[in-house]
Specification:
By secondary structure, this protein is of the alpha/beta class. Helix content is 47%, strand content 19%. The protein has five domains: 154 residues, Rossmann fold; 80 residues, no CATH class; 50 residues; 208 residues, Rossmann fold (3-Layer(aba) Sandwich); 61 residues. The protein contains 21 helices and 18 strands.
Length: 644
């Protein structure tokens, strides 16, 4: 059953066309992702679907009785209601039904007339069955479960919503939307600003959701785990791909390549036809054939010229190399004013590492970055940077930008030794072209500000990057460019991110931060999850723990051994990935050969090539099996950064 459909929807703002014949179909129970670059029109389409915006043309079709839910811009919360009252308001009909059942119970308790008792009893039986079928006996438990999942413990239930922070109000509005259980959930970046625990809960809740979901998200890990259909919004139109996000990436690459082949083949055919017409139109014996070709050419449906999506192009380099030890912390406590967020931090970061900081919101991740950057002072203990270390800091709130000056001035003021032409060139590589560089910083979107900060970071050529949520505000395509740039960076990176795809791509070590300290795990985020589970399930077999200098020496030996094993594992991964790349290249080359006439017209030669292809594919499968085995995290976790 189709629960939501758009047909050739269009929307423009002035001369700028946002949607140009966008069509999609959502079936009952289907979970679909909507992706596209920033500014493509994703949020505009969601507003049209939810009735908050009127399209210029096209149709929105929703069968009668189908309910659709989305988050209102203001959250739709009453500032005078308590958290629990807001949740209970979703179930007003059930609460009224519950009250009626209680009244009927009282009536049955006092009725002496058998006939009247039978009549009331029948009413009660029918109503209680309906109450049960509509979830009347579970809704209060569901409220508590959803509130707990979104980090509203019982201490919040009596709080007035007007006293909540902006982020808390957004989460509360999400809780109410989920509890209302519409047939179609329309969500715009639902995982933004959620910590890992809450994000994981949200993911599982939506996976189990029985209704349909259309979600805009730049969280590729989230899309991979949730959706079975992906719609890409490009140049105002929607393209449908069956599968999760990873499948979409693969299918899109193949489709782009096919579109290029079709376009170039058609251009060649047009050129040949036009040449034939020129050579034969004037000759009486061939003019008829030339005219026939001309008519066919005029009727030909021209393929669209493939366009490459504009994306930022940049890389990070270092002006000089740092010493082996980049950052060392001993007995470090961090926080603001009188508020200590985390204490007893012992941490060592070495050259070339890419270390991810993980922990709940408010644990001190951003504070640790600011302390390392010199913006905040340690409350207690020591934090030192190593020899020749130069830092580059990315602030997730972008507070270091000056809003009243132009984009060009913002970057030029920071690097006044550069020529204007060179500054414009750098800005161009971050998608600021032409008049864009004369916009004031205040006029920029979140994504544009993020690219401007990254441009400045690139020009610093620091050898130690401190990145606080660098993927926030970036679309999927810009995130991929950033990942690529950082994966080839020769310096050291300490970063905070809630983007699990980004974490898995970059992290060589994960540090979990909590109020009582930190502990470390070698490998990426998935390895961290696996190893953390094993670590926490292992009972403590020693009643006495090493302390002081003994612990430091023990930690150093453990760190050294863990790094030796991790280096071995990384070398194996690198060798296997090189073998995979070489084998895939051979397969691609051999497949291209089989398309040539001299091969596919020669059966013996074609069979020989296909046999070779099968051997290569078998070898490739073997490499992937070995790669999966090595990636699975067979080596012990790095316990260097641990609670003291």
């Amino acid at each position: 059953m189709v629960v939501l459909q758009t047909s050739r929807v269009s929307k423009s703002y002035g001369i700028r066309t946002i949607l140009d014949g966008a069509s999609l179909t959502l079936h009952a129970g289907e979970k679909a992702g909507l992706v596209g670059p920033n500014g493509a029109g994703k949020t505009t389409l969601l507003k049209i679907l939810s009735g908050h915006l009127t399209p210029d043309g096209g149709e929105i079709i929703r069968p009668g009785g189908v309910t659709l839910g989305c988050l209102a811009q203001d959250g739709g919360l009453s500032s005078q209601s308590t958290v629990m009252e807001e949740m209970l308001s979703v179930f007003t009909p059930l609460i009224e039904q519950e009250k009626t059942l209680r009244d009927l119970e009282l009536s049955m308790g006092v009725t002496r007339d058998p006939a009247a008792f039978e009549e009331v009893s029948e009413q009660y039986s029918v109503l209680s069955e309906d109450f049960r079928n509509r979830g009347g006996y579970e809704f209060r438990a569901n409220i508590k479960a959803v509130l707990n999942g979104l980090k509203f413990g019982e201490e919040y239930h009596g709080r007035v919503t007007g006293s909540l922070s902006g982020g808390q109000k957004t989460r509360l509005a999400m809780a109410r939307l989920l509890l209302s259980g519409p047939d179609v959930l329309v969500l715009d970046e639902p995982t933004n600003h959620l910590d890992m625990e809450t994000l994981s809960w949200m993911e599982k809740y939506l996976q189990a959701y029985s209704g349909s979901i259309l979600v805009v998200s730049h969280d590729r890990y989230f899309l991979d785990s949730l959706v079975g259909t992906v719609y890409e919004l490009e140049r105002g139109r929607l393209k449908k791909f069956t599968g999760n996000y990873s499948k979409f990436i693969s299918l899109r690459a193949g489709q782009k390549e096919l579109e290029k082949k079709i376009y170039h083949k058609q251009r060649e055919e047009i050129a040949r036809t036009e040449d034939f017409i020129r050579r034969n139109i004037a000759r009486a014996s061939t003019t008829g054939r030339a005219q026939s070709r001309q008519k066919a050419l005029e009727k030909m449906e021209l393929a669209d010229k493939p366009t490459e999506m504009k994306s930022a192009r940049f890389s990070f380099s270092t002006e000089r190399s740092s010493g082996r030890e980049v950052l060392a912390a001993r007995d470090l406590s961090i926080g603001y004013r009188d508020n200590t967020l985390c204490e007893r931090i012992d941490l060592l970061i070495e050259r070339g590492e890419r270390v991810a900081l993980i922990g709940p919101n408010g644990a001190g991740k951003s504070t640790l970055l600011k302390t390392a950057a010199g913006i905040l002072k340690p409350r207690e203990g020591h934090l030192t940077l190593g020899f020749n270390v130069s830092t580059g800091y990315y602030d997730q709130d972008q507070t270091l930008l000056e809003g009243s000056i132009t984009v060009l001035e913002e970057l030029w003021n920071r690097f006044p030794h550069m020529d204007e032409k060179d500054v414009r060139g750098v800005l161009g590589s971050f998608l600021f072209s032409g008049e864009d560089v004369l916009k004031t910083v205040n006029q920029l979107s979140g994504g544009e500000k993020a690219r401007l900060v990254l441009a400045g970071l690139m020009l610093r050529k620091a050898n130690f990057l401190l990145l606080d949520e660098p993927t926030n505000h970036l679309d999927v395509y810009s995130r991929e460019v950033l990942e690529e740039a950082l994966s080839h960076y020769e310096g050291t990176v300490l970063f905070v991110s809630h983007d699990r795809y980004f974490l898995n791509k970059l992290a060589t070590r994960v540090i979990e931060i909590s109020p009582s300290g930190v502990r470390g795990f070698s490998g990426d985020y998935d390895s961290f999850l696996a190893k953390k589970g094993l670590f926490e399930d292992t009972p403590d077999r020693s009643s006495s723990q090493p302390t002081g200098k003994d612990k430091a020496r023990l930690s150093y030996r453990q760190e050294k051994e863990a790094r030796r094993l991790e280096e071995k594992r990384l070398r194996q991964i690198s060798d296997l990935e090189r073998s995979i790349e070489e084998t895939e290249s051979l397969i691609t080359s051999l497949e291209a050969e089989t398309y040539s006439p001299e091969i596919y017209q020669n059966l013996d030669l074609l069979l020989e090539k296909n046999t070779h292809l099968e051997r290569l594919r078998t070898r490739l499968d073997s490499y992937y099996t070995q790669w999966d085995s090595v990636i699975s995290g067979e080596f012990p976790a790095d316990q260097w950064a641990s609670k003291k």
